[in-house]
């Protein structure tokens, strides 16, 4: 299943991170649907009912749009079917946060959107999953391995970041897992930051029976867990690995529903690390939610290659003047507060609390 995610990029960064090539070979950055960039709030701990960035075909909103044109939209997590008759969507009697791939054609809630071609891609830095243990549950953060080009931006003025990137460049993921943006090299507009996780989903548009603004919502499609994740949980999101799979999933004109469903496979393309139980409470929204922890020691763990890349990206990507979406505080203001609250924190935790790692806003 998938019940919690993180998406820390600012709206403009999300657009850059999911750029794609048109049929003519030109790289494009999808624009946000009018007004939707303001509805999205970056978060280290995003739960159902929150607004998330979703990529979909522009033709869902404009029938005259080019067949290969994509657009970004903010949608609420938890699909509300168009036929729902209540005035309050919170009155739904069952959860639609996740949709099992094997049941899509059996349930009207999901079959209707699928037949209508309402396929989308949910974007996130990664997702959290909990492994059951004897007395409690251990959370893990799961994400795409980061490529060689990741986190190499904004390093000229930061010798520490430059050193980290030099180390990370020797531990890049295999070429077959690399993001197209990270392997082309030299093209204007190329994204070399965090490679977003691309999860297959279905969306629907619900309008209150008494009238009002339409509500766009989505469900994350899940499949059986891959071999490397099944020790954590028996389900995982249906991951679309690579630009071509994303294109085919979104192309509801040329790629029919039954053919699109064939893309929903378990894939051993993700990496993970254990994190603190701090993430268990969805109200906790800080970099500590992503911090790797050592399950066998209370000491600060030595970061793995993938987690080092994640930390390097969080360190190097966020302009220092951005404010936290939840508190409205600037990084400098939150830094002062964090220092007072965490004098006993280890070196890595203090680094994560630095001014350059607050959730990004516009």
From TrEMBL:
Pfam family, any one: SRAP
Domain of life of the native organism: Eukaryota
Descriptive protein name: Abasic site processing protein HMCES
Record keyword Electron transport present: no
Role of this protein: Sensor of abasic sites in single-stranded DNA (ssDNA) required to preserve genome integrity by promoting error-free repair of abasic sites. Acts as an enzyme that recognizes and binds abasic sites in ssDNA at replication forks and chemically modifies the lesion by forming a covalent cross-link with DNA: forms a stable thiazolidine linkage between a ring-opened abasic site and the alpha-amino and sulfhydryl substituents of its N-terminal catalytic cysteine residue. The HMCES DNA-protein cross-link is then either reversed or degraded.
GO molecular function: lyase activity; peptidase activity; single-stranded DNA binding
Recorded family membership: Belongs to the SOS response-associated peptidase family.
Annotated region described as Disordered, given as residue ranges: 20-51, 146-190, 277-362
Biased composition (Low complexity): 277-286, 306-317
Record-listed E.C. numbers: 3.4.-.-
Basic and acidic residues bias locations: 26-41, 321-340
Root EC class: hydrolase
Any one GO biological process: proteolysis
Keywords per UniProt: Covalent protein-DNA linkage, DNA damage, DNA-binding, Hydrolase, Lyase, Protease
